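Anyone? Bumping this.
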Amino acid sequence: MHIQCPAIICGIRHHGEHGVILRAMTPDDGLVAGYVQAGRSTAMRPVLQPGNQVVIDCHARSETQLPSMRVELHHSRGPLFAEPLAAAGLQWLTALTARALPEQQPFPSLYQALDAALAAIEAAPSARGWVVALVRYELLTLIELGFGLDLERCAVTDAVDDLIYVSPKTGRAVSRVAGEGYRDRLLPLPAFLRGEEVPDLSALLEGLKLTGHFIARDVLHGTGHASGQSSGQSLMAARARLVERLNKMVA
Amino acid sequence: MSSPEIDALTQALARLPGLGPRSARRAVLHLIKRRETGLMPLLRALEGVAENLSTCQTCGNVDTRNPCGICNDPRRDSRQLCVVEDVPDLWALERSRLFPGRFHVLGGRLSALEGVRPEDLTIDALVARVANGGIDEVVLAMNATLEGQTTAHYLAERLERFPVRLSQLAHGLPVGGELDYLDEGTLAQALRARRPMA
C-alpha cells in the first residue's frame, strides 16, 4: 500500500513516547490512519493538529498493517484555535469525521465538503457565515453513510410544497397541513435546507437540531470507547457546547 | 541468569517511560554495583513517596503533603491562580519560578474523541475556588493545541460571571526559534500577538 496525497488531519492519538497515530481525511482513499514517527517532537506538534491541511506519504507492506506515515504541512489552521466558536466548529467537524467514517473507504464528496466547511470557518467573519456549511456537511455525512434524509416530498401527502417538518423516526419531510396535529413531536425543517432562502441564525440552529438528532441516533449511537463511556455521547456533548455558544449569539 | 527478584526489578524498570529492557538491565546492574550509594537511597526515596503520596485536595497537585507545598506556602500570592491541564504542566511552570501565585490542576483537557467531558475534570472545583473569592486573576495556561484551547474557551465561559481578570499564556515564537523553521500557524499567532517596541 502506498498513498501520497493531500489530506486534512482529523484525529491524533499518542502512541508510545514519541509517536502518534494520525487519522486524516484524503480525497480518494477516505479516512486513512498511520503511525507518524517522532510525531510528538517540537517540530511536528504544530503540524499534527486537527484541521490542518497536509500532504501525507503512507507506506505499508500489506493492507492489514498500520501504515507508517510521513506528513508535511500545507496549510495551518492553528490561528483558528484562538476563536471560541471557530475552534469548537473545527473540533466538531474533525472529530465527527474521525469517529463516524470507516477507514480506507473513499468519500470524495465528504472530503470536498469538509475542506469547504473548514475554509468557510477560516474565511467567514462570523459563525453565521460558516454554520450553513457545517449543517450541510452533517447532512452529507448522513447521506454518505446511508442515513440520508428525504426532504423532497411529504411522507404523508406526497406534497412537494410547504414542507416545514421532518419526522424524527423516518427522516422524511412532512408538510404543514399533514404535520399540524403532531408538531410537538416533529423536527423543524428550515427552508434553507431545501434551497429556498438565505438562512438567519435561528434557522441555522433549527438545521443543527435536525441534523444533530439523526447524527446522534444513526451515526454515533453505540460507538464504543476504551473508557467504557460512549464516545458518541462525548462527541455530542462537544457539539452541544458549540450549539450553546451559537444560541448565546441569537440571545 | 539472574534471580527472580532481580528479574522482577528489571521488568518493573523496563515498564517506565524512556526505559526499555536493555536500559533497565543497565540500571539494575548499576544499582547492584552501588548498593549503598545507589540502591538503598533509591529504595528509601521510593518508600517515602509511596507512604506519603497524595493528591492535593485544593489544587490537584501531587505531593507528599496535603495540602501541597505550593498551597501551604504563605509567600504565594493567593490572588493569582494559574490553571493547568496536568501535573507535569504545573511542574514545568514551577521550574521556571516565574509565577508567584497558586495553581489548579484540571486533570486533563476536554476531548471529544477521547471521551473527556467537563464532568471528568476538576472544573467544578475550579469554579468553586473562584466563587469563594479572594482571586483577582485566573491565568489559563492550557496547551496550544485544539483541545487545550477549546478547554480554555470553555473555562473562560464558565468563569466570565465572576469579577476576575482572565488571561491566557501568549502564543508565538519560542526562544531560539528561527522564522525559517517555524510553521505558518505559529508564525500567524506570533504576528497576531505582535506588540509595539518602546
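Late reply, but here is one note on the structure posted above: The mean pLDDT of chain B is 93.
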